Give the backbone structure.
Amino acid sequence: MSGATSLDELLAKDAIIDVLARYSRTLDWLDEAGQASCYWPDAAIDYGFFKGNAADFLPVVMAIEKQSARRWHFLNAPAIRFVDAANAEVETYGMAAGVRQSEAGNYAGALYGGRYLDGFEKRGGEWRISRRDYILDWSHPLPDQPVFDPASAFPLPILDILQSGHPRYRDL
């Protein structure tokens, strides 16, 4: 492998890692345009409950995420194998949690663990997801929480992100 090839692969890995970080962040902040920038519109998506292309998947996944009062997506460092200069196979383990407020005012939800089996493609100098299969490995219910307010002795801020455009969201 030449030095130029090594540098190109390092830059490509960095770009792919950036897409994956953006994927989690834009879901958590309900940034629909940012979420769309992670996928090529014609990307083949299979989440089990949805099979189709990314353009059709994005409104579905954003509607699901908007049902949670709070959500968190955490991804592990990806394993990346380059097929050629414009295609890569990527596997990333991840965990996600989401909580919803019940009519009684309690918050409850679930914690999920799984893996993303992605194909990435570079088009016009930009890397994005061109294929995604999501595999759910496990889920665990989160118990009801009667309140979800900061503790008076240690009042950390808590954000309710119920729609896109939250005032604390920053373009990065």
Q: What stands out?
A: The mean pLDDT is 91.
